[in-house]
Amino acid sequence: MYRLVGYNRWVSQFEVQISRTKLFPTFNFSTTAVQSPPSQPAPPPIQVLLTESAGRGVFATRRIGGGELIHTAKPIVSHPSLSSIHNVCYFCLKRIGNKAISHGVSFCSEKCKEQAQGFYEVEKQADWSAFDGHCLARGLKYPLVIKRLACMVISGVTSADSVDILQPANLSSEMILQHNYDSQMEEEFGLLRSALEDADLTGEQMTFLTKQWYIGVLARIRINAFRIELPGGFYEDLLSSAAASVEAEAAVGNSVYMLPSFYNHDCDPNAHILWIENVDARLKALRDIEAGEELRICYIDASMDYDARQTLLSQGFGFHCTCLRCLSKD
Asked: In a 3-state reduction of DSSP, which class is residue 80?
């Protein structure tokens, strides 16, 4: 089962707080009153609060030193890119070449194969050639993640509302018109549902799979998914690396996380998300961060000029960046 290991009780607390108040919910990850048992990792020194203009944001609860590992995160759902599907683990996206191929996909270990068993048993029942061909021809990546999530729900690995805590709930009308999403979503949804129905997956296990569910999940995944790029060199080489380029071909896959999805963007970030050998994410401080300061990451290639950054953020994420770097048009 995909789980954000070590954070379930805090996630539950956050959901309760959101249901009780719409004013200023908090998502606390640190405590000084109670020490974590030795068998459990200490919660990271951060909390999630509502910001004035950018929705939820992640804030430091104590001083965090530059280079410090803030926290790690496991995905809610992930899927390898079609170009990498035979060269990475089908579960954790670790590079493995062509070994251990099983039914056209690969697993890096028996543990990953076992963890993937639930959704993979559902996937194997369906013929995905039309769906995957559609995605490959159009360079689509997010429908693949939705396919994986749908199979996880059908298998009972997760619930249909597992990404509902993420924002936004719907695609903006501008984004739908700009990318011709209306007709595209209709076709994608039809191919997904047909593949599962043709595999005799019907009845109660399919009641969640409506067009409304598909559109809501697509909206959340499109904004919150991270493109997973694994390094070819050593870990130390990553410390000075900037955010990755936007081309899907450079990625081994895409993944959605709980806590990392709450980080807002800045073109001059103080934190960085990176991957060492698989889909498990690490959040590190790029410089000293004071208590109460918001932690921000860069969603795009920070080396681009002002106009290129604004265009990409507007078209890809639906907002106009007003960070200090952009205000100075640097």
From this structure: strand
The length of the chain is 330
**Residues 20-31: what's their mean pLDDT?**
38
Give the tens place of pLDDT for each residue, 181-207: 677 888 999 999 999 999 999 788 899
The first and second tokens of residue 140, run together, are 């689509």
Dihedral over Cα of 60, 63, 65, 71: its sign: negative
pLDDT more than 90, % of the chain: 63
Fill in the DSSP letter of residue 240. Answer: G
Taking alpha carbons only, the member of 229, 252, 221, 242 closest to residue 317 is: 221
Residues 116-135: what's their mean pLDDT? 96
Confidence (pLDDT) at 281: 97
Q: CA neighbours within 13 Å on the CB side: how many for 174?
A: 6
According to DSSP, residue 183 is labeled H
Taking residues 136-156, report their average pLDDT: 96
Tokens of 81: 């890119």
Q: Between 129-138 and 181-198, two packed helices, what is the crossing angle to 10 degrees?
A: 160
DSSP of 104-161: TEE-SSHHHHHHTHHHHHHHHHS--HHHHHHHHHHT--HHHHHHHHHHHHHHTSS-TT
- Phi and psi, residue 61, nearest 5°: -100, -5
76/160 Cα distance (integer angstroms): 12
Helix (H, G, I), strand (E, B) or coil at 4: coil
Q: Which two tokens stand for residue 162?
A: 């597992």
List the structure tokens of 203: 């009845």
Q: Is 329 left (phi over 0), alpha (psi -120 to 50) or beta?
A: left
The answer, yes or no, to whether residue 284 has pLDDT greater than 80, is yes
